[in-house]
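Reopening this ticket.

The earlier resolution said the output was attached, but the attachment link was broken on my side. Pasting everything inline this time so it's all in one place.
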Amino acid sequence: MRGWTVIAAITLILGGQSAVAQPRLGLAPALGVAVAPRLDFSPEELALAEAAAGLPELAAYYGANGLRPIFTGENAVKLRSALIDATATAPQHGIPASRYALDARPADAADARSEVAQARVLVRYMRDMTGGMIRPGSVDPLIKREVKRPPIDRLIRDFVQSPDPRQFLLDLQPRHPAYLALQRALTGGQALAIPADLPRAPEALWRPGARGAGIVPIRARLEAAGFAAPASDPQVYDAALADAVARYQAAVGLPSDGVAGPKTIAHLNGDVPQDGRNRAIVVALERMRWMGSEDLDSRHVWVNIPEYTARIMENGAETFRTRTVVGSTDHDRQTPEFSDQMEHVVVNPRWNVPRSITVKEYLPKLQANRNAVSHLDVVDGNGRVVARDRIDFGRYTAANFPYRMRQKPSDDNALGLVKFIFPNPWNIYLHDTPTKHLFQRASRAYSHGCIRIGDPFDLAHALLSRQTPDPQAMFQRALSRDDEVWLKLTPAVPVHLVYFTAFPDADGTIRRFEDVYGRDAPLYDAIQKAGLDS
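Inline output:
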């Protein structure tokens, strides 16, 4: 009886379809006519149905394809060889090879468990390549990214029918140039190792304009790492050397100021292990797999949180860049990771103070002095401003405070003079700020979670440029008004808030950034643990 229950589940797993699934089961109904389910199954088919019943993606494939096995039959050797070759590339993706452990024995046509065991490895590989190994939110609740994979049963069908199944599997990986550059760096395409027999660079604070014999080994070590700086006088710290030092610093995760101080010299002398670099690349590859369904060739806004930078990218090229300030390191203020659609540029914005800020920061001040934070209005549920002398702030707590707080448009508004809206459950957006001095700092994690923009007017002009021949004039007309103005972006622009501590520059050089929120370590550990789950 159990076998018939399993068969019913398998053959009807796609919703009881008759015009699509049943012809694959050997039935030939007239167009639009329902057909009774097939009732005759061989013992091998029953065994396969039972072995796959608990695996929805495999059950969907087998149920829609006549319970035909993948790894037995006339194409079994070719398909199995393709799977072995593809999974052997796991280390090139930063994936532990043990994750795809395959039984060395060929599948037995009568052994459904062997068939399904190999098919499970196939599914695992397909899922990993099209959306990553790790569920994003499982390593940090502030990683809000949603992974979108193609239907795995459809991929299995296309794999089985492909004239070149090996290449079909290899082509499932992200093909974005950034992913390929990260792969090359991981597998030695961009080695930063410096031969130990080279003379050590003397520790000092080497700046442009300096002169001395100690600059010669700095040049030699930079050249060995792939950052050559030819010069007429090798003992002079010239502009070309400063540029080479800055590029090297970016590659190893140091502030790229072009000054060779103690930390830079320690890296050049090989005194700093490179394990951290490889770990950052492994994590970056997984994050890129999470984004495999995103069209990163189309125009989009790319905000890399640890880099403190926002860009507009188009056809793989950067068309605009600006500095950012991101959420502070307090966990409840960190900037989350997700993708959305930017729909509006809001000029002269009001600031609707988030409730968390209202009750945690401002309510205690109002209880001590009702005239505190006088730049903010107290607003009731209907959006009406309420006079403070009509409110007994002392009777309320964070749980029952019934009012909101709002700041009028102004030069000193917390959002500055423009914000960029992409509606999301976490109320995160990009915005201007009156606090400009923070953009001069190397580390810029100071906000409550939203992203402050260093050149907000220029960003607005760039975003509006697709819908008007004079975006500056459009923006200025809105700015000249005293009230809040919403400018709709047509079309909406995808925005990606990402977290890469290792990422390739335009020339493919891997740049490193501080793991400001500490999100890399738990993700790296999860990747290694997933490798043991074979």
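Reporter confirms the inline version is readable. The two ends are 32 Å apart (CA to CA). Residues 204 and 386 are 62 Å apart (CA to CA).
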